[in-house]
Amino acid sequence: MRLWEQNFRDVEPYTPGEQPKDRNVIKLNTNENPYPPSPAVEKALREMDLARLRKYPDPAAEELTEAIADYYGITKDRVFPGVGSDDVIGMAFLTFFNGPKPVLFPNITYSFYDVWADLFKIPYETPALNENFEVVPEDYFRENGGIVLANPNAPTGVELPLDQLEEIIRRNQASVVIVDEAYVDFGGESALGLTEKYENLLVVQTFSKSRSFAGMRIGFAMGHPDLIAALNRVKYSYNSYTMNTPSIILGAAAIRDRAYFEETTGKIIRTRERVKKELAALGFTFGDSKSNFIFAKREGTDAEKLFRTLKENGIYVRWFSKPLIRDYLRISIGTDEEMDCLLSFLRQYTAD
Ligand SMILES: *Cc1c(COP(=O)(O)O)cnc(C)c1O
User: Fold this and answer.
1) Atom 2 in ligand 1: which residue has the minimum CA distance?
2) I need a surface site. Which of 21, 118, 256, 297 has the fewest CB within 10 A?
3) Model pTM greater than 0.90?
4) Which CATH number fits domain 39-256: 3.40.640.10, 3.40.630.10, 3.40.50.970, 3.40.50.1820?
5) Tens of pLDDT, residues 88-133
């Protein structure tokens, strides 16, 4: 090691899903929405005055924050927007987890949580999911420096019922509980209502999946105004202008179009339920996903090999090399046509 390297921050970064250059592949590897954003977004983009880019954006992203607050029927002092929920959750780790006690999150969950914990030097422990990939609530009934639960969980798609989640929050009012609802719009039950009752609960959502905005980078947290104020103090100590002008304008246009959102999420849910039946008929097993992906395995099928073969055939899914889940593939829900391509490939593959 060269001397000037000795004070470098040593981190093992998160590995995002692959974004292939070839636009013709069937891309079912990063849980993107197969449908375009709302037509209202296109209209807002055409009408956007480019002269606005000359100026700094509104640091509070008021137009977007207000549109989100309106959508959920809450006041805007309960909303904190960020550059994707990754930005929001990272900021929340930095803001709320500064104690000596370990933060708790499951051993199988979104693989960014341990990366942020390491980056910010936050102690953490990872209670195991049970054999059905369910969170065991009792594991969270102990002293901790905070709790983070993705619900529905990633990459399993399994949901922790709201009454069990509430029990975890109820017993943990001495630390901040973050519920990451990246997939809740695909049939899950949101904990948003509980933020009125529990001041220490922060619910995080994203435009990336259910609102077809992964490329735009918008996420947001909702919770008690004191939590939001604390997030803002940290944000304004690091980067005041997280939200750029186009994302403020286009994000507001996207969330105002409730009808389009309901239509497209409804289509994805219907496709998912159909694909579940077809995968089951091919011998795949999986939990009852409430997300826009299915986390499946097949007895006697090598998941890594299938993942590579699919890729050679232009179909991208996600495979994780982690010991507990290396037999599984995470398959995002695409359009019906995309899923039919995948299914006909799998029909042939499993028959051979
Ligand atoms: C996709 C995802 C995120 C991050 O989404 P952004 O694109 O940064 O909004 C956060 N948590 C989970 C569980 C996710 O799957």
Assistant:
1) 182
2) 21
3) yes
4) 3.40.640.10
5) 999 999 999 999 999 999 999 999 999 999 999 999 999 999 999 9
